[in-house]
Structure formats: structure tokens, C-alpha cells
Design a protein that fits this description.
Elements lengths: L15 E5 L2 E4 L4 E4 L2 H4 L8 H11 L12 H13 L4 E5 L2 H18 L7 E5 L8 H7 L2 H4 L9 E4 L4 H7 L4 E6 L2 E2 L5 E2 L2 H14 L2 E5 L23 E4 L10 E5 L20 H14 L2 H24 L4 E7 L2 E6 L3 H10 L2 E2 L1 E3 L3 E4 L7 H19 L1
Parallel strand pairs: 3-15, 5-6, 5-7, 7-10, 10-11
Antiparallel strand pairs: 1-2, 2-3, 4-12, 8-9, 11-12, 13-14, 14-17, 16-17
Helix pairs in contact: 2-9, 3-9, 10-12, 11-12
Length: 390
């Protein structure tokens, strides 16, 4: 008999009833150090008092009115994002998948508006994850994502990850956009080199293709910059944001330049819940905290500390780990053992991690994790590795 909840998840046998900072407390009272943060969502940890206050205050006023009306909290958050980024305009969604759908529509509408409606091809890269809608899985091109869901949305071409020469050869006057994550999450914590991202920007500039960046997982302070592409000194034309921007409350966004958004006029896109007062009240508080240069400097310091300790962990378990990759507090352990086995061993040691492709264990703690919790995390990972070494 099918469960009441559609069985599309392979869930761990854990249930959490509350959280405190970097710790999640299970229904049996056991405490787990949370290095998953809801898959890079809880950027300020569990039950953060600033976010609780922002949500509670807004909840006592008004929850939902729909986008039939002006929403002051939405306008404020859009202004904060515009002031802090390349963007001229913002559309709010409820998730990263919805953001990806709008980014695809925006690219196609841009060329239709420019009088070239047949210019629809979007180039993506192997290992990408842009969500689970039909458009997003077509963009990924991965068999495990698309099998059984055809026919797929046409107009996508997937290239080998990081192969910029292949991109040079693939871009034509039919290429509408190049879309990628500056630092792949699901793909195995794989960063695109700064010089390669600069070269991709140059290719787009030369050919007229739009550059679309997916910073759903690597954005909002995760890498030590507000957005990961800032390290390369380039800007996109369109960018998808979600996860961390709501600090745990469902919120996503598409940021765009005025030129890239030129075709998106009244009636071309919409959302009932997107940018609702509750989500945007929380998002504003997240931005106030995370966009602060001192906060981002601390993310970099903690990321360097964590990486240093992880390098020692790798050296202590050469049969389990190959190395450390990533940036800031978006880190990965390249594994010789199966990452899923390490995740399960971590449950026994009271630590939560997230597996990824390319034999990688993702470590995505809250950005305000304390030094003592970082030290504790490495000790628990050490014990989990020892369990597997056995």
C-alpha cells in the first residue's frame, strides 16, 4: 500500500522536533551537529532569534495578499538585492526550481522581444542541478533526472563540466544563453575556475548570448562572498537565488539586468505566493545580517579554519578520503568510500552531512557556526571515518 506521503524520498530514520544554532534535536532527545543546514538553507542556523523575531512580527500583521497588490516587504527586499548586486530588477519565487523556470522563460523572451524568436538554445554543463521541474531537468540533461519524463523541453545542449574549449566551439548565432553554477553543489562541490568564468563571460559578450548563473546553493554568503561569481570579477545577466535567502523560510528570486528583463512585461509571468510578506520579512533580515562585510569576513575565516582541520582529517584517513574541495563554508570531502556510507556512519556519531555526485560528501554548516562546533564536527567525522575503516 502506498504511504500517505508520496514515496519519492529515501528518508533517513530520523525525526527532528527542534533546533538550536548548528544543532538539531531529534524526537528522542539526541543532539546532532547539523552540517547540512537543510541543504545550504539554514544560513543562520536553527531557530535564529533575529529571524524568529522578523517572522513573528510580520505574522502578527498580515501573511498573504497575493501579487494583485503592492507588497512593501517585497519592494524593500528587492531594493536590498539590487543595491548589493549587478541586478536592476528582481522577481520573487518560492523555490530555486521556480527561479530556474523563470530564468529559462526570461532568456527565451529576451530573444523573442529582440526579434529573433528562433534563438532558443541554452548551453548547460554536465553535473548541473537546476531543479526538478520539466524545464530544469531538461537543462541538466542527466539520465537519472530525465528518464521516464519525456518528451523533454527542447533547446538545451549539455557540455562536459569546465570544458571552455567545447563551449567556444558550441556557441553559435542560435545560442540564447549559457547557464551554469559557479560552484556545483549536487554535482560534487566543483568550482569553475575564476579565469574560466571570465572566459565564459567574454564568449557571451562576443556572441550576444546571455550569461545565466545559478547561485541557488552557492549564493547568499555561502562561499565567503555574497555571491560566488564575485570572486571572478564578472557579472551575469540573469541569476537564480533561493535556499539561503530565506534562512529556512521558502523564498527564491531571479535577479536580472534591465536589458535581460526587457521582454518581461505585465502578464508574462506570475506567482500567487512568490514574494509574500512573511517570506520577504525574513529575507530582509537575512540580507541585513549576511551582506555585512564583517559577517562575510567571518565566513571566510571559519571556512579556512574548517578546511585546515579537514585536510588533517584526510591525512588521517587516506583509505577513506582523497581531498577537500570547495570555498568558504561550501566544502566537500572527495571520498574513496561511498559518501552514503559516511552519511550513515555520521548518524551514529551524531553528525548530519549530505552526499553529492562525484563521490563527494557535502559539508554545508550554518554560516554563523562557532569555532568550537567546527572542531567538534571534525572530531565526529573522524569517528565516522574510523567506523568505516573498521
Amino acid at each position: 500500500m502506498i504511504p500517505h506521503v508520496l514515496p519519492t524520498y529515501n528518508r533517513a530514520p530520523l525525526s527532528f522536533e527542534r533546533g538550536e544554532g548548528a544543532w538539531a534535536i531529534a524526537s528522542d532527545g539526541r543532539r546532532y551537529l547539523d552540517l547540512g543546514a537543510g541543504i545550504a538553507v539554514n544560513v543562520l542556523g536553527h531557530a535564529n532569534p533575529d529571524l524568529v523575531a522578523a517572522l513573528t512580527e510580520q505574522a502578527g500583521r498580515i501573511w498573504h495578499v497575493s501579487n494583485l497588490y503592492q507588497i512593501p516587504q517585497q519592494e524593500r527586499l528587492a531594493g536590498m538585492l539590487v543595491d548589493a548586486t549587478f541586478a536592476d530588477t528582481v522577481f520573487f519565487t518560492n523555490s530555486g526550481t521556480e527561479a530556474a523556470e523563470l530564468a529559462i522563460k526570461m532568456v527565451r523572451k529576451f530573444w523573442d522581444h529582440a526579434g529573433d524568436p528562433d534563438r532558443i538554445e541554452i548551453i548547460t554543463f554536465e553535473g548541473a542541478f537546476h531543479g526538478r521541474s520539466t524545464g530544469a531537468i531538461a537543462a541538466s540533461g542527466a539520465e537519472k533526472m530525465v528518464k521516464g519524463f519525456g518528451p523533454l523541453m527542447p533547446g538545451f545542449r549539455t557540455l562536459p563540466w569546465g570544458d571552455i574549449d567545447a563551449l567556444e566551439a558550441a556557441v553559435t548565432d542560435r545560442t540564447a544563453a549559457v547557464m551554469l553554477e559557479p560552484l556545483q553543489g549536487e554535482g560534487g562541490i566543483r568550482p569553475i575556475a575564476d579565469e574560466d568564468l571570465r572566459r565564459i563571460r567574454e564568449i557571451c559578450d562576443r556572441t550576444g548570448a546571455l550569461l545565466v548563473l545559478d547561485e541557488v546553493q552557492c549564493g547568499v554568503g555561502r562561499t565567503g562572498r555574497l555571491f560566488a561569481h564575485e570572486y571572478a570579477g564578472v557579472t551575469p545577466d540573469v541569476m537564480m537565488v533561493a535556499k539561503g535567502i530565506g534562512g529556512g523560510f521558502p523564498l527564491g528570486a531571479v535577479l536580472a539586468t534591465e536589458a535581460a528583463a526587457a521582454g518581461m512585461v505585465a502578464g508574462t509571468h506570475g506567482s500567487t505566493y512568490g514574494g509574500n510578506p512573511l517570506a520577504c520579512a525574513v529575507g530582509c533580515r537575512v540580507m541585513e545580517i549576511v551582506a555585512d562585510p564583517d559577517f562575510l569576513a567571518e565566513v571566510n575565516r571559519k571556512g579556512a579554519l574548517f578546511r585546515q582541520k579537514l585536510e588533517g582529517l584526510v591525512a588521517s584517513h587516506p583509505d577513506i578520503f582523497e581531498g577537500v574541495r570547495g570555498q568558504g563554508l561550501m566544502l566537500g570531502l572527495k571520498c574513496k568510500a561511498a559518501p552514503a556510507d559516511l552519511v550513515r556512519a555520521g548518524y551514529d556519531e551524531g553528525i548530519l552531512t549530505v552526499p553529492a555526485a562525484d563521490s563527494t560528501l557535502r559539508l554545508l554548516p550554518p554560516l554563523n557556526i562557532g569555532d568550537e562546533d567546527i572542531a567538534e564536527a571534525v572530531q565526529r567525522l573522524d569517528r565516522a571515518a574510523a567506523r568505516l575503516a573498521g
